[in-house]
Amino acid sequence: METGAYRVARAAGCLKATFTVAVGMNLAEAVWDPGGIAWRIARAAAGVALTLALATYVVLRVLRWRRARGERP
To answer: Is the pTM of this model over 0.85?
Structure first.
């Protein structure tokens, strides 16, 4: 499995984007009290997206680290 630096960088970008959305939603909830089923679904979707982005980033970093360690003489 190819785990180049570009994939790690792309995963980091996705993580930054989903984190920004999650923080923005928390700020919106702190200032304004949104409610309803649409808000709950959006919060759940943002949580799942953040979790997946974080897991993907961590897995790619670990795979790249293991591969780099294995290539050393």
So the answer is: no
Give residues with Cβ within 8 angstroms of 14, minimum separation 6: 53, 56, 57
Looking at this protein, which amino acid is placed at residue 3?
Answer: T
Encoded tokens for 14: 């996705």
Phi-psi category of 36—alpha, beta or left, where left has phi over 0 and alpha has psi -120 to 50?
A: left
CA distance 8 to 32: 36
> Mean pLDDT per 10-residue run, the chain (73 residues)?
76 94 92 88 94 95 84 63
